[in-house]
Structures are given as structure tokens and as C-alpha cells.
Amino acid sequence: MKRLIRLLSVMLVAVVLPLQAADNTLLPWQPVQGRFVFTQLKQLQGLPVPLRSSGTIELKDNEMLWHTTAPVDSKLLITAAGVSQWQQQQFVAVAGSEFVGQLMLAVLQQDADFITQQFSVQQSGQHCTLLQPVEAPLNQFFSQIELCGETQLSSLTLQETNGNTTQITLQPEAEAQ
Known about the structure:
The protein has 177 residues and is α+β, with helices and mostly antiparallel strands. It is built from 5 helices and 11 strands. An 11-stranded antiparallel sheet has the order 6-5-4-3-2-1-11-10-9-8-7.
């Protein structure tokens, strides 16, 4: 279960990418589709330098491909059925990941009811929104998630309950080249 939640923390960018509630003042970004370049810095308690990874995210109607290219090459496919990891030339389902897949798909489909059941949503600065998990298992691992961007989501910060922090920046692939 802890491995699954860690996997969720790495993929939570997918949870918030296309999120748009009925009230656009809280989540003002337009839904996104297509390819994005990401950079992730994870600051772990006790380590002086954050761990850095980067790659691409491809969003389609009912799925997301999370492709980390550095420091190691790995792929995750997220659907309503759960999360699958690329192994031996095929995607293999991660046991117990159904909630993660359902949560991600609900966000991709902009299911505001589902999101507001899982998070308290409020403004956090001029171009930022704060999500605070309200139910298990999310509130056992995350204290808050801050989303920032003007017209599109460009960064998020995940605060874990254990003190670790993950910062992710996003850029449409066309702008990154």
C-alpha cells in the first residue's frame, strides 16, 4: 500500500492537470490535452539535495501516459482500471491501483463532484489554488497540494505529511522545444 501511495505522489500531477471545477475562480485553468514536458524536484527529509527527474506526460481522453526519461527511463499508463507500469515490452497492472486510476480519470473528465469529495479547494495567492485532502488515503500522505499558473497550470507543490516536498513544473511540449 505504501508503494502505491508513493506512486500516487509521483503521479499526482496528473490528478491536477485538467482539473476545472464549475466555479472557475478557484480552478481557472482550461482543461488540457496533448503532450507536456515536466521537471520534478523531490526534497526528502535528511537529504541535502532534491532528487530530480524529468520527462513527458501525454493526456488523451481516457488515459494518461507518464514517461520519465531522466534519470531513468520508465513509463506509467493511467486509466480507470488503475495504473500499469511498462515492464518487459508490455504494460503490467499495479495491484491495488484502482483508486488512483479512478481519481485520475475523474479529474481528466473534470468530475468536479468527485474532486470536491476528495479535496477542500481554496485560493492561495493571485494565481494559485490550494487542495487539501479531506479523506483517507490521501489525507494520510498529503497535507496539501498547491497549483499555480495564469492561463494554464504551470507548477504544483505537494506537501507530504512526513515533511517531504515535491515540486513539479509543466510546459506544453511545443513551448519547451
